[in-house]
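Entry:
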Amino acid sequence: MAKIAVYDINKNQVSEKEISDAVFNVDVRGYLIHDMVRYQLAARRQGTSSSKTRSEVAGGGKKPYKQKGTGNARQGCIRAPHYVGGGAAFGPSPRDYQFKLNRKVKKAALKSALSARFQDSKLTVLNALELEKISTKSFAEILGRFELNKALVVIEGDNPKVELSARNLPFVKVLKAEGVNVYDVMKYPNLVITEGAVSQLEGALA
């Protein structure tokens, strides 16, 4: 099993932790990460864009002029797509952008994303992350000690002081262990995770 240093919030190394190779040190498969990011972004799309076809646009029930004798091209309706105010020929209609991805693929993609952070030395493990009060300044100082400006912070459970302290930092996001996902892991260049959250992820993914 691989080992990683465990720090306190003052950046003092307090111990060393063995982490599961099956979760944090697998072969990184970029195509799985790509598929999972596409899957997540597709699921977020509303798919509510809509346009009216010629049969749905109001008006145009009467033939604009007679078939022959005017010198103009024959027309049957002023709501055809080539008329101003006419219906759209191939416009968007409401649709669902989601597609299926197997559960094993989702788990393998998350393992690859976590492993990418570990193998790139972008994974920081804290023994605990506790604040005395809600304070954005205090939380920013903790990240500053580790020289992390942009980071995904993963905690093991509800921690309102940490979550509320981080919400005003533009390039920081706090997630509970059960909410860790490939998109957020790859979006933020650094991953900060508590010891308890490491154990939870290993239990869920190993």
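Residues 2 and 126 are 16 Å apart (CA to CA).
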